[in-house]
Amino acid sequence: MKEEESLWLLNAMMQMLNSAKERVTKDHARVRNYVENIKKGVSDLKKLDDIHRSANIFNKVMNSINEIKDTTYIYDRNDADNIYENMIKVANYFLNDNVKIESKEKLNGAALSESESAIVSYIYGKIRDARKIVEMIEEESTGIHDKQIEGERLSTEANHIYRVAKVNNELNNKKDEAKLKLISVLAEIEKTLHKLKSVNKIKCHYDNYNNILEYNEEHEHFKKISSIYEFKKAQIGKEADINEMKTDVNKYQDRLAILDKNGESFKERSLDISAAQMYKTDVEDIINKLNSIGNNINGINSTLDELLKIGNKCQLQQTFLISSSLNYKIANCLINITKQK
Fold this sequence. Notes:
Number of helices: 8
Low-confidence stretches: 110-115
Mean pLDDT: 82
Largest sheet: none
Oligomer: single chain
């Protein structure tokens, strides 16, 4: 190998090492910056109550973590080692046996004698500089690796915080749903009690009026309507049953208030996802029980609406039949009186 070619090759490989060092140094700085941003994101996630802002920050954190994961410093590190090994091979071509360089060995400048040529000193200096660059690349690579490990840890922490935030958000939504359901069911119960009182006021019996109505051609039709009304009325829940439902709803209201109070202390340990899940399950249980009561009340309400319709119709027909029957009997009495005169 010619001397000029060897020197050119050493210089070219030095440029490659410098390029690798610049890439790794930039990657290390970029990764450090990502990690600092991730730390800030994790800190912000701990403070935020807004799930939408939390989701936005979490996505940014995960994007930064993916950028860190995608940093491929190993290629530059291995490439630098290979370049350095090749530089040693080229250098050893010009060096005497007593100053030949072993791979990864510390360079011993004292081994060079004054009689060594300038080219040998130059080559030795290049290898020394190359070794420093390789060590810098190793140091930067180790720094990147450490930051990647830190990024993984922060990723786990961010995931946990965001999962807790989502469960808390679901818990708050469920509590709001439960409170609205409480108001709705209590209102329906009051409405049902009012309707029940209206139904109980309706009197649609035909037994007391048999003597008056027995000759009216609509008597049988009225008896049929009255029987239907009394049958359906017997099927509905009593006032005590509805009040018992109201008592249950009030108990669930008290239970929800206790959960709210306990939730204040829960905020102090807001990273406990199992506690959040437990509270959410309790609230969902309240909602399910309220839904069950609400369905029962809605069924009673529908029956009461039908009863009010039938009962009012029955009362109107009763009044009409009694009136028409009495008028008919009075008219007959007057006719008989007139005939007797």
